[in-house]
Design goal:
Elements (H helix, E strand, L loop, with lengths): L2 H10 L3 H13 L2 H8 L3 H15 L4 E4 L2 E4 L1 H28 L3 E8 L1 H17 L4 E7 L2 H9 L5 E5 L9 E9 L1 E5 L9 E2 L9 E3 L5 H12 L8 E3 L3 H10 L4 E4 L4 H6 L3 E5 L6 E8 L6 H10 L3
Parallel strand pairs: 3-4, 3-5, 8-12, 9-10
Antiparallel strand pairs: 1-2, 5-13, 6-13, 7-11, 7-12
Helix pairs in contact: 2-3, 2-4, 2-5, 3-4, 6-11
């Protein structure tokens, strides 16, 4: 692109500052509210909106008795103005972080069990390397995580792996295996150290809801053991709640050992070996196949490979 063509493209476009002002008007619900939020005069905001409407050749706002309302064109522009405002805010924050020697930001999503198993491990190694970083961790279902990756709301998803080949749009790799165990509380102190699933399927259970990768692995355990699925079941996707129920009632569950390592270490829960299990739980990372991972994402994944 030549300097002349770049200048032409810019002159034909919109003033980013006007879009930021428009976004604030939409958020505030009034011209006066936007002026207060931006620290400028109300006539200045009104003039900016008028110039933007003139540039586009359409009305963006309608005055009402209670303030303003967006026209159809205004609704369409607001989505883009909000996105631009977010990009500008993130750009400023990125420069500030870089100046302070802080990597990121990075947004990582994951299913409950995968987060518990992988995130503390990776952060420990990053901290040991004296890394400074800005990271957000979000818990969600497997299906929701894939959609968040598509919308680029997260960069990495920590999930159950190995159940099926990932969709073409995703890259997926396993970083850890962890054996399943029957997890019980004090109410089942008399159970042996190992047993078969078919001998306890009639007990009251806590199991994950249908639909996620973890639930499919649990289902496979019962299928491989050639026993029916439990009927007396509380369906729960909250790892913390599941452990709380098992700890305080006579219900049992199946979890990877590492997920309950803290509770096992202090004796509030007990892990019983499940006999004749032919596979282990696998967890790992999912990312968009077309995306170039940020340096912090690459360091996070590398940290997962360390012992």
């Amino acid at each position: 692109m030549t300097t002349a063509s770049l200048s032409s493209d810019l002159s034909a476009g919109l003033d980013p500052r006007a879009l930021v002002v428009f976004n604030q008007v939409c958020q505030s619900g009034s011209i006066s509210g936007a002026a207060r939020a931006l620290g400028v005069s109300q006539p200045s905001v009104s003039q900016t909106i008028a110039q933007l409407e003139s540039r586009l050749g359409v009305a963006l706002l309608k005055r009402t008795a209670t303030g303003i309302a967006l026209t159809r064109e205004g609704e369409a522009l607001w989505a883009k103005a909000a996105a631009l405002s977010a990009v500008l805010h993130e750009a400023r924050e990125a420069v500030e972080r870089a100046s302070a020697g802080i990597a990121g930001p990075i947004r990582i999503g994951g299913t409950p069990g995968a987060l518990v198993s992988l995130v503390p491990r990776a952060i420990r190694h990053l901290d040991e390397a004296q890394a400074s970083f800005d990271m957000s961790v979000i818990e969600a279902s497997d299906e929701a995580l894939s959609e968040m990756l598509r919308r680029r709301e997260i960069e990495l998803a920590l999930v159950t792996t190995g159940l099926a080949s990932p969709q073409d749009e995703f890259a997926e790799w396993t970083v850890m295996q962890d054996p399943f165990a029957l997890i019980v509380g004090a109410a089942h102190a008399g159970l042996p150290d190992s047993l078969r699933l078919d001998s306890i399927s009639a007990l009251p259970w806590v199991l994950p809801r249908a639909g996620g990768g973890f639930q499919r692995q649990i289902q496979s355990l019962f299928i491989n053991a050639q026993c029916s699925q439990p009927k007396n079941v509380v369906r729960c996707d909250s790892l913390l709640t599941t452990k709380g129920i098992v700890r305080t009632t006579d219900r049992v569950t199946i979890l990877p050992r590492q997920v309950v390592e803290a509770e096992l270490s202090v004796g509030v829960l007990r892990a019983i070996e499940i006999e004749n299990v032919t596979f282990q739980r696998q967890i790992g990372v999912r990312a968009l196949a077309s995306a170039d991972l940020s340096p912090l994402a690459q360091r996070f994944i590398s940290a997962l490979s360390l012992p």
